[in-house]
Specification:
Distance between the termini: 47 Å
Helix content: 40-55%
Shape: globular
Radius of gyration: 22 Å
Strand order of the largest sheet: 1-2-4-5-12-7-10-13
CATH class of the largest domain: Mainly Beta
Order of helices and strands: EEHEEEEEEEEEEHEHHHHHHHHHH
Strand content: 15-25%
Number of helices: 12
Oligomer: single chain
Largest sheet: 8 strands, antiparallel
Structural class: alpha+beta
Length: about 350
Amino acid sequence: MAAETGASLVVFDTLEGYRQAVRDTYFSLDFRLLDNQEGPFFSSFEMSRFGPLEVTKALVKARSSGRRGRDLMNDREPDHFVLNIVRSGLVRQRQFGRSAETPSGFMSLFDSRHPLETQQLTTTSAVYIRVPGAQLRAAIGAPEEFCAAPMDVRSGVGLVFYRHLQSIWRERANLPEGERVALSETLLDLFATLCRGSAGSPPPPMKPAGAQLLERAVRYIEAHLGDPTLSPERLAGALRISTSHLHSIARGRGPTIGRLILIKRLQRCRSLLADGRQAGRRIIDIAFDCGFNDAAHFSRTFKTEFGLSPRAFRKQSLGRHVNAPDQVGSADQARFPLAVP
């Protein structure tokens, strides 16, 4: 049974209500109470969205265990990761053959599309951040390597990350959607910095020649975003190096080259959509000028990356109704015959 007690706070007095809330918010997880526990059950969820990130503050006054096996998964579920920050209590987690305990002041990551086991060994207060898989992979490369590996948020970069999260949570009612998106990007950047610092085998320092080459690659990408044929192969040819060498330079230091091209295109589109001088231009024309050649793909990718459709982002950024059409008609579709690779 659930009782609505505020704009985003929901309280549950049964394990089944809590189980359903986890299923609706994240994914199916088979929860059970530990030690045949009896007596009243209490849990609460408070949720808010910051761009593509969904943040949930949860309190569970019970010892419980959760299991997510293959029988609870399906291919239609979205690809996302969940970051669990333990504010008080103790959580035990197992995934990818690793087992770890996450006490108060630590956080851990888990992958929604792989089996996992979790136990809340005490009354637990935690913050959960759901991150789309595409965004997290763009930020840290291989998130699976950091699952079931507790990270300290009591000092250093971890504490900076946590304080940034606390700040945007406190100010959430006063933040326009565009600012929420920007702050969520900063949060992911901080998490990526923390992961790089905690990685057991960070990439070796880049040699000056490699750094210069990567800088040239970025400049070339930014200068040719309007070319829909721009690809890692095209870029490697322009730099007179092999494609494999280009990928090796970027590996472990941020997004892949293909992902970098996409991010740069989306960022250029976002900048133009927020520019009042471009308010008279159709959204579809802006996307075309930034190298996209499929309208549906552009709209989908933009919303996944920034949490808003292109139209909603433009309206929010300009702070007024925008009359410029953004619907894709048959003429527009004819201009976008190919999918972006």
